[in-house]
Amino acid sequence: MESVSVVIPTRNRPEKLRRCLTALAEARELTSFETHVCDSSDAASVCEEVRKVCGEFEFVHYHWHAGKSASAARNFCARVATTELLVSVDDDVYVRPDAILRLLEACQRGRGWRVVGGSVNWSGKWLGPVVTRADGGRKAHPGEPASFLISAFFLYPRALALALPWNPRLSRSDDAFMGALWRSKGVVLLFEPQAQAVHDEQQHERKVEYVEFRTYAMLFDTLLANRNLPKALAYELFVLAIGAKRYVRRPKRARTYLAAWYRGHRALVSDWHYLRALVRQPLPGDGQR
C-alpha cells in the first residue's frame, strides 16, 4: 500500500482543528499516517494557538503560509507533504475511525490516475459526488459518472496535485473547477460511501456574490476543459433567469447579483491563457497504477 499523509488547510479556527485532529488520532489506530496542518491564520496570536493545538498531537506537523484561499492552501499542502498519496481533510470535518483506511482501500481497487471522495454528513445529509446541471448540481446516482467530488474529504495522488495545481483565485466552487480539470485529463473520480466523516454543524451563508465563482467554474468546464457549448448557454440563461426571478423586486440585490455574474466572466477572460495552458498540461507519464 502506498504511503499516505493527511493534509489540513486551516485558518483562524484552532478549536475546530483540535476536534479534527482528535478524530484523526483515533483513525491512526487502524492505519499509519503523518498529518500536515497548513495554517494561514491572519494574526500572530491565532497562529500561536494553532501551533499549540498541533503540539498536542505527536503525529502532526505545523506549517504556516500566506495563501488566502482554500485552493492556495491545498497547493501548499501538496508541496510540504512528501508521500505518494494525500488525504485532504477540512479543519471542520471529523472523520470516523475507519475513514482513512476505507479511502486507501478504495484507491487500491482503482486503476490509472484517480481521486477518491469520501462521504460527508452535513446537517444530517450525506454528501457525495455531484453531477453539474445548469441549475447547480445534484448528487450522483450510484454508478453514475460524477462531475466533481466534495473537497472537504478526499484522497488524491501528490503527483497529480503538483502537475495540476488548484486555482488560487477561487475561494468557492474550487471543487467544481478541479472536477472539470481532472475530467479533461481522464482522471477517474471515485467515491467510497463507507469512508465517512461529519461536518461541523455551523452553517455557511450562501452569499449572492458567490455566483462569481460558480460562473467562472462552470464556464471553464463547458468552454475550455470539456467543451459543451449548449450546456454553457443553458447555464448562462438559467443564471440570468433565476436572478431575475429572485431579485426583480430588490434592485440592490439584483445589482449585486449581476455584478458578481459579470466579475465571473471578466475573471475567466483575464485568466484565459493561463487556463488553456492548464488544460494542456500533461500528466506525468508513468501514471498512477
Describe the structure.
By secondary structure, the protein is α/β, with parallel strands linked by helices. The chain has a domain at 208-280. The chain contains ten helices and eleven strands. The protein has helices at 14-27, 44-55, 70-80, 99-109, 158-163, 174-184, 211-225, 229-247, 251-270, 272-280; strands at 4-10, 34-39, 60-64, 85-89, 93-95, 114-122, 125-127, 130-133, 136-139, 153-157, 188-199. The termini are close together.
Entry keywords:
alpha/beta; nine-stranded mixed sheet; 11 strands; about 45% helix; globular
Approximately how much helix is present in the residues? 40-55%
Radius of gyration, whole Å: 19 Å
Structural class computed from helices and strand pairing = alpha/beta
Cα end-to-end separation: 11 Å
According to DSSP, the number of beta strands is 11
Percent of residues in β-strands = 15-25%
Shape designation: globular
H/E topology pattern: EHEHEHEEHEEEEEHHEHHHH
Mean pLDDT: 90
Separate helix tally? 10
Low-confidence parts lasting 5 or more residues at pLDDT below 50? none
Biggest β-sheet description: 9 strands, mixed
Give a quick summary of the entry.
It is built from ten helices and eleven strands.
